[in-house]
Amino acid sequence: MEIKIREIAPTRVQTALLAVPVNDKGLDGNLAKRLDRQLKGRLGALVKKSGFTAKRGSSLLLATHGAIPAGHVLLVGLGKQDEVAPHAWRVAGAVAAKEAGRIWVDEAVFMLSPDQQTDVVVGAVAEGALLGVYRFSKYRSNGHKRGTLGTLVLGRTASRGSAALTRAVRQAKLSASAVCLARDLVNEPASIATATYLSEQAVVHCRGEGLKVEVWGKRKIQQMKLAGLLAVNQGSREDPRFIRIRYKPKGKARRKVALIGKGITFDSGGLSLKPPRSMETMKLDMAGGAAVIAVMSVLPKLAPDVEVVGLVPATDNLPDGGAQKPGDVIRYLNGKTVEVVNTDAEGRLVLADALILAAREKPDCMINLATLTGACIVALGNELAGLFSNDGGLAQSLTACGQDAGENLWQLPLATEYREEIKSPIADIKNVGSGSAGAITAALFLQEFVSDVPWAHLDIAGPAFANKDHITCPKGGTGFGVRTLLNFLSGTGE
């Protein structure tokens, strides 16, 4: 979809659909009032008759029947006037784009009043529209049952600040393209999206000035003694891959950041086999790795003055005669030993390898994303990701970046009281606790491998995959975490 910015007189613009954002004050805004006068009060009458309250994500469509040049007027709800944040504009953009597709409109205008013509608002509307029209249709034989908006024009009444608005749209396009890449990778069937496929996609998409991809095959992984990745891979017919992506800015980097993403391309649980229903969506278990690849893919165009290292350990986790067994012990590169009590707690085993290597890079901070625990879903549901960190400033910054992106993080404690839960009678630690506080004990396990580097762990098990359609995302992979990380790397929230 193309996004344009254009100076427009809303009562005279010729378009099939004119979208007008409104808050809970209804038609009190000047733009809505002007349109209602031109429509001889029909808009206000429809608002009253329908009980439209401008709740966030709501909309109301009116056919104008030639009263104004626009064929339809669409009121898009922003919610309460004093609670309109960037994400409300993101949702409004998605609503407008979806409604345009529903009535088979090729071009629509999203009209902004003078006080709304800021780079924050314009960027959020553009990003929301692009995210809202996303569909994974690769395997659909009959295509979509509705149209797709071709062009969204962001209407404005003045020309000031054009450069900033153009930059905001450009950044929104890059951000949305990264999210859609992550969604594509997660939505791809696990029979296709193997570790090899994931590494190939990293090579294809992570190109540009300052960006380099290195893929380790099984022999190199053995040479590097990545014992966790090798252990999880024992039951698979597919060889593992370890993906390293490095971005270096043109000038001097103001800091160095390591991003680590869990790349379990399908999780059956291994010999600790999951129930069938729990396996149905387990292609999502590489959502953390997909997010890291997607973030790295747009860095050459965004050009942050940050050196970034992306690491993705990739394999599936399957039962086989050679699969690792409960009771096995893994010795890691840093000398720590881990008793594998449950082979379904495999994500932390492969992340441990990557965290050790990331810490050796001596970054200013490192952040890992992983669909790690069902316990985090029990605690926070499907809309929030758990945040664990050994550094207060890093946690605060990521929380702010997530809030700005509409990707909410909730900090949970690294409670040392639960460290006893992962003590092993035969090794240094074991990979699961007794069952309670599962998200916390998983985070404490990971902390064993981060050395003294400022570190944050995002448990995205809930929001990484949508079980139903949402306004800004259809059912399936969401690309959660991509925009939070891009905000963080660009300096938002610091």
Commentary on this structure:
This protein has 494 residues and is α/β, with parallel strands linked by helices. 35% of the residues lie in helices and 20% in strands. The chain has 15 helices and 20 strands. The protein has helices spanning 30-38, 42-50, 86-102, 119-132, 162-187, 195-205, 218-223, 227-233, 276-279, 287-302, 347-360, 374-380, 392-405, 438-447, 482-490; strands spanning 2-7, 17-22, 59-63, 72-77, 107-111, 151-156, 211-216, 241-247, 256-261, 263-267, 307-317, 329-331, 337-339, 365-370, 385-389, 409-411, 429-430, 455-459, 465-466, 476-477. Strands 7, 8, 9, 10, 11, 14, 15, 16 and 18 form a 9-stranded mixed sheet that branches. A 6-stranded mixed sheet has the order 1-6-5-2-4-3, with helices on both faces. It is elongated. The protein starts with a strand and ends with a helix. The mean pLDDT is 95.
Low-confidence stretches: none
Nearest-integer average pLDDT: 95
Q: State the major sheet.
A: 9 strands, mixed
Question: Which structural category fits the helices and strands?
Answer: alpha/beta
Shape call: elongated
Radius of gyration: 24 Å
- Treating each run of at least 4 consecutive H or I residues as one helix, how many helices? 15
Termini gap: 32 Å
Beta strand %: 15-25%
Total beta strands: 20
Percent helix, as a range, is 25-40%
What's this model, at a glance?
It contains 15 helices and 20 strands.
